[in-house]
## 1
Amino acid sequence: MTHSTSNSKINLSISKKLLMLVLFTSTLATTVSSLFQIAMEYKVAKDSQYSEFSVFESSAIPGMQNSFWSYNDQALNDQLSSSITNLDFVKIQILDESKKVIAQKSKDIKVHHSETRVFSLKNPHNDKETIGSVELTFTNDFIVEELWRKSMWIVIANFIKTMIVSGILMNLFNRYIVNRLNFLSKNLEDPNWSESEAQDVQRQFWPYTNTDDEISRIEAALIEAHTAIRQRTQGLKDSAMGSARLAELGIFASGISHEINNPLSIIAGNIQSFDRHISANSLTPEVVKKVSDRTLNAVTRIKKIIAGLSSLSRDGGSDPMETVQVQNLLQDTLNLCEATLKGRNVNFEFKVEPPDLSLECKTVQFSQIILNLINNAADAIEGSDDKWIKIHFYHDQVAKNVVFTITDSGHGIPAKIQEKIFVPFFTTKPVGKGTGLGLAIVHGMIQAHGGSISINNQSKNTQFVIRLPAQELRNAA
């Protein structure tokens, strides 16, 4: 069994990384600073203790030396009692040359750590002769206790200082650096973002716009790259959308050719009829008018089909909004696909309520919407036994919408792909069978008309529901 390795990383924002870095650096600096201050405090305390030893040696030892030499026990005890009052001194004892204790004084306290220091007693008349010694026992406990109390205050003071400094630094970094990067990152995802908008909003985070720094240079490079990518993407998108429109028309090519062949056959038959009448010398004004009318109707039919193809093959996004009869718009569009639907054994019907229902729209784009939805439905039910498509237009008086539903004999769209079907280039069709742009084009055009498209999951068959503002509502706006 093999185990796949992944380069998964923890998602950590730059502000959190910065916070961790500042806290780590501040904590380290606080720790070093506190240890240094504690060490200095300890050195000061020990220097003070050593100075007390010097005072003891220079002032107390000579008196003890004289009292010990003259065997003045009272004076010796008084001197020991006076010296033991020092806070750090725990015990003082005087020993003779044989190390026998002659006199001593001690404190009845418990200490955790003690040290002993020995001072020699000399003959007052001969300083080369040692007559005894003084053993001074002292403790560092009081120094440590005092140092511990000071250390707590040092740590607390440094912690407060660190938090204040960290807070100020974090606020400055967030305002002038992190917010700039967040703003840049967020807006780079917006395809409509422009450099002028970036400069206007950026002043909120960095008022010093006349200065140049690393982030401003990154901003400039990213804005330039973003603009170039956006222009290139828009060009590719427009090209793909145009190709998709032509692809949708190409699907109905065979049906369209059939629609043109019928009137062409009529024209050819009319010409043959003229020839017969001319040969029989039976050409009368009535015959001429009858054959001419049939020919004119056939030519008009071809003209409508060609006009419909020409119209649907172009981008109607810049066309003005106009009021059209839904019945006429729908019929003109169906002229292009009716024969193909019959050839694919798809039953088709439509209903418009009321029959004179009007719609304010861009005619070319709305015809493309209808054509794309019909083609999408026809593809979806290709393998079904019972194939039908129904279109229904009606006026929703309550919601003040013109509602357009297109229902096919399919049994709905799986929930897991419903959110993806309007995404460009998403398709469930086999390779070569679809561009994945049909529904994306429909979605974009409907939004451009101020409407919405959704899937009716309450229907037992596959049904798309398009809602558009009613004419009177749009005019009121």
Note: Residues 212-251+319-477 form a domain with the Heat Shock Protein 90 fold (CATH 3.30.565.10).
## 2
Amino acid sequence: MSLALYHPEHGYYARAARRTGRNGDFFTSVDVGPLFGALLATQFAEMWRLLDEPHFDLVEAGASNGQLARDVLDWAQVNDAEFYRAIRFHLVESSPAARAAQREMLAAHESAIVASTARLPDAVHGVVYANELLDALPVHSVVMTEHGLREHYVDIAEDGRLIERAGRPSTEALEKYLAGAGVELQPGCRAEINLAAVAWTARASMALHRGFLVLIDYGHKAQELYSATHATGTLTSYQRHTAGVPRSGTPAWLSDPGNSDITSHVDLTSVERTAIELGCTSLGILDQTYFLLALGLSDLVSGGTSLAETRQRLALKTLLIPGGLGSTHKVMLFAKGVEAPRLRGLSGMRRLT
């Protein structure tokens, strides 16, 4: 998964500045239009005022071509000039192609951009946020057998196909991870263990000296993710907005490596526990729908009949409709060095489906 997605020459993400949208392989909230970024900007502005610091580090991890950053900065520039002047924007992106595309995307906000690199900054006073980053980090695929936990490895069949072979776990950390999450896989159940997501959360929590951590992704609490409901695991590949299917016994994620997205659902329990262990306070986990509604999403959409207004209403529907981005995506909010703030994004219903 690491090679297929992030190899510097052949990796799926490394080779292109953008993989989402109508002409890509999957949709994100950013592709719906600027509403998502505008609402995040209102939350970030509130966070800046709570911190009461002259400068505000705004760090987007997995920034892609900078489209979400542009939407955030566009809103701030027009609607909150004081906040805009305080922003020190850091874009974190591993793909050189995407980093190159950021220059044009963010040309109008050049004065607000501090850096565009592949690494998180060392000391953040502000916000670290990531939208659909953790689900694309490489996972370990495991299965529980009558002989205990086994890990799936990638091997080559005699006919040259990539295939799975089960063997002993590559690290004791896999069993420790499940124990730490308080779950026990039943025999025959497959699952994914995202050690990389936990490691990334730890780095982000340590980099955040004072401020907030905002993570948006699709996933479940550990008790559900590792239950019989997901007995076949959640590892999936996408190409042209279609989930991959096995071919001649080869799992979809092995059939066309480097040319399709590979993803799995995030274990929200382990991410939350890691952030807390590194000094963060968990403020809440909720469906994206209720987070965006609390921020005033419905107030931004008019009832007019123009093409632009119609598109805006369709964007609203996409962001809120049950079973779509609004309910599948979860928002996790953490604070560090800030005493029990009351955030607008958490002021409404806090439902987690």
Note: The longest strand covers residues 208-220.
